[in-house]
Design a protein that fits this description.
It is built from 6 helices and 28 strands. With 389 residues, it is α+β, with helices and mostly antiparallel strands.
């Protein structure tokens, strides 16, 4: 069916006249102006409208974070005038970060403003979608900006605590979930820590898909099994099987759907990517190379796959955008597997992992995807993490 006004595919129909009328979303308003009793029907899959009030609240919160960040850095600069010689290095770092954060706010505002205001119904929604359709409105309360702490003259004059934005609108941050041992899951929501014994193995992978939900995929030996875990009820239920059995893979969101990337099937390393769409796993464009033990992160409309193993530990970065993967020329500073990834402002922080000697590292890298540069951070992890999943 096509729209009677513009010949685009029709999204709605109405039987207000003797002949059924068809229209697209652009011309739906024109049809309502006709003096008839309208019964509008949606053509095709059910769609959810983004909640316009929540969208405005989200944009206003980002704008307020941006405004507060500007005020904070102004205070920091004023404070720095009396301490310039001692604090110039610390100020430069904070100033660069805040400028990057403000740019990130602008990026997020542009990104969210340009989103379609409706999405098709599906089984799992990424954090941004869950927020905008009011499935998980609490995500809005999780967003916080950077915090500038000003000190008197002493060993530390300025400290800039990093923000969890935009990480928290592209990855769920209600809980941190990791394997504390080979089969035991440790969950921390920032207030309480709980443990859950499972039949899973830490060579499989986990992805938070809701406030209290996580998907586990793979296993040992390599498996095509997938499960949904309810962290509050401590219940586990099966999902449909992946097309490819795997372990040592990565999980993240791709195009708003839970996804698995790469790994090892017990015989060969993989470049195969699958996404979980409303009850089934579908093949997606493959990585540019086979690898296991990689890490991946969703970042606006892009996905980055970092590090991994193919004959040796890797320092590569791949980018998914517009339906295809690209191997970037920029590299991380060390060959690593199993790194952690965190998006803060315009930076992706790459932390931890295992080096070529299979030793856990505390070093951190900073990746700026605007400038396509990676540099070693001047800070490190205080403690080695549990098994990074």
């Amino acid at each position: 069916m096509i729209c009677s006004s513009c010949q685009d595919p029709a999204e709605y129909s109405c039987d207000c006249t003797s002949n059924t009328s068809y229209m697209c979303s652009k011309h739906l308003g024109n049809h309502y102006r006709l003096n008839n009793k309208h019964e509008i029907n949606v053509i095709g899959p059910k769609k959810f409208l983004f909640n316009s009030e929540m969208k405005v609240k989200l944009l206003n919160k980002i704008r307020s974070l941006k405004t507060q960040a500007k005020l904070d850095i102004s205070k920091a600069i004023s404070h720095a005038n009396d301490l310039f010689i001692k604090m110039s290095g610390e100020l430069k770092r904070a100033n660069n970060y805040i400028k990057g954060f403000i740019k990130s706010c602008d990026d997020a505002i542009d990104y969210i403003k340009n989103l379609n205001d409706e999405i098709e119904e599906k089984e799992f929604y990424c954090p941004l979608e869950s927020l905008l359709i009011m499935q998980e409105p609490e995500i809005l309360d999780q967003i916080y900006g950077p915090n500038i702490n000003l000190y008197a003259i002493n060993n530390k004059t300025i400290q800039c605590d990093i923000s969890n934005f935009p990480h928290c609108i592209f990855q769920y941050t209600f809980n941190s979930i990791a394997f504390s041992s080979q089969n035991e899951l440790a969950c921390n929501n920032g207030i309480t820590k709980t443990k859950m014994h499972t039949d899973f193995n830490w060579v499989g992978r986990l992805l938070s898909v809701g406030k209290a939900l996580a998907i586990y995929t793979g296993g040992d030996p390599a498996s095509n099994s997938a499960y949904i875990i309810n962290l509050e009820l401590k219940s586990i239920n099966s999902l449909s099987s992946m097309q490819q059995k795997r372990k040592w893979h990565a999980m993240t969101w791709i195009d708003g759907f839970p996804a698995v990337l790469g790994g090892y099937d017990g015989d060969e390393l993989l470049n195969v990517v699958e996404v979980y769409k409303n009850g089934n796993w579908e093949r997606y464009p493959s990585l540019t190379s086979i690898k296991s033990s990689l890490s991946a992160i969703s970042y606006y409309s892009k996905v980055y796959a970092i590090g991994g193993f193919f004959k040796k530990k890797l320092n590569s970065i791949e980018k998914y955008e517009n339906g295809k993967w690209e191997l970037l020329f920029v590299k991380i500073s060390s060959n690593l597997t199993g790194t952690g990834l965190f998006a803060s402002g315009i930076y992706i922080i790459i932390f931890g992992g295992y080096n070529e000697n299979n030793k856990c590292v505390k070093d951190c890298d900073i990746f700026n995807d605007k400038r396509m540069k990676v540099w070693k951070a001047d800070f490190e992890l205080k403690d080695w993490p549990f098994y990074i999943t």
